[in-house]
Design brief:
By secondary structure, the protein is of the alpha+beta class. It contains 4 helices and 4 strands; from the N terminus they run αββααββα. The chain has one domain: Haem-degrading domain (Beta-Lactamase).
């Protein structure tokens, strides 16, 4: 039986995919007038691409990275993870694991077409609802690329 190296390739987010996510997010942030930081990590939680728009808050850099990390590690939106951490939630203290998690809106997992996690996206710089809005539009930029 012949082994094919392609059988062992793990799907990861590509540089082009990461740049499409950032471009779509930046365009929407400009539309709504909110400069943001956008982080895209691969499935191994390593930086794939990052953008700090002119005027984006410096303190939000780490938050964007944390949101992307949290979403990639757990494969769900950061605000969903936050529900587990609330008083009375199923996982109090979860936000203190993995070197610290960011458990409010603006982080989304990046999935390939079969639902495998290929990365994480984090947006920070606006209100939580603005960060979520930009993240959703940014992720839609990836879907446009793959269609």
């Amino acid at each position: 039986m012949e082994n094919n190296w392609e059988d062992y390739v793990v799907m990861q987010i590509t540089a082009l995919q990461a740049q499409c996510i950032i471009a779509a997010g930046e365009a929407h942030a400009v539309e709504i007038g909110v400069p943001v930081n956008i982080a895209v990590l691969d499935a191994g939680v390593q930086l794939k691409a990052f953008s700090r728009m002119d005027g984006a808050l410096l303190g939000s850099i780490d938050i964007a990275l944390g949101k992307a990390k949290t979403a990639a590690l757990f494969g769900m939106a950061t605000e969903t993870i936050g529900e587990f951490c609330r008083p009375g939630g199923t996982s109090p203290g979860l936000e203190q694991t993995n070197g610290g998690l960011v458990v409010f809106g603006g982080g989304l997992p990046v999935l390939n077409d079969d639902g495998t996690i290929i990365g994480g996206l984090g947006v920070s710089g606006g209100s939580v609802s603005q960060d979520v809005d930009v993240a959703l539009v940014a992720l839609a930029g990836l879907r446009k690329l793959t269609r």
